[in-house]
Amino acid sequence: MARRLLVAMIQLLVIAAVAKKVRIPDHLDDVVDDEEDEEWKMWGKKAVSKPVFDPPPDFTGMTPDQIQAEMMKRHIGPAMGFVKLRLDVPRSKEELPELAKKWSRLLRTGGIGARVTAVDLNTLMFTLDSGKETTELKDFFLRQPEAYEVKIGQQAFRRPGDPPLEVVIEKRKLAKERKQEPNDEL
């Protein structure tokens, strides 16, 4: 066994001695390193996208809602808004923070940097780091069964066919008053 080990070590030494030694000179001014392409140089760096100049459209003939929609497309900074939840669903104070946490995590999973917090039993507030994502955020909230209306700035968004929140509140108030009226019939 020892003899085999000795023979193997001698063979390795002979191979190492026979192998051509590579010597790298210190003077490398005439060497051209063209192995790195642009993709290699950019590896590991954050992608920097150059903002494309998108001139605003001609606002003449547009309604204020159309103008605001065009301006929201070009919004870059942080944004904030509110989500009004469906009024016909009873909820507890404990459910709202859980719902806010769930939506925040789902948004983060989708790559949208938004934070959602509970304000009251029917309202959640959200803050968005990049205003460019307001359209995706609005669409996300309106796809959730618990949400009724999304307000970003002065603009309110609802599912098609849903009446404004004020109309729903007024209808609920009238229905409540009708239930409380005493019957005067004999």
Automatic annotation (TrEMBL):
Signal peptide (from-to): 1-19
Keyword annotations: Signal
Record-linked Gene3D superfamilies: 3.30.70.260
Domain of life: Eukaryota
Matching PANTHER family: OS03G0148300 PROTEIN
Protein's name according to its UniProt entry: Mesoderm development candidate 2
Lineage: Eukaryota, Viridiplantae, Streptophyta, Embryophyta, Tracheophyta
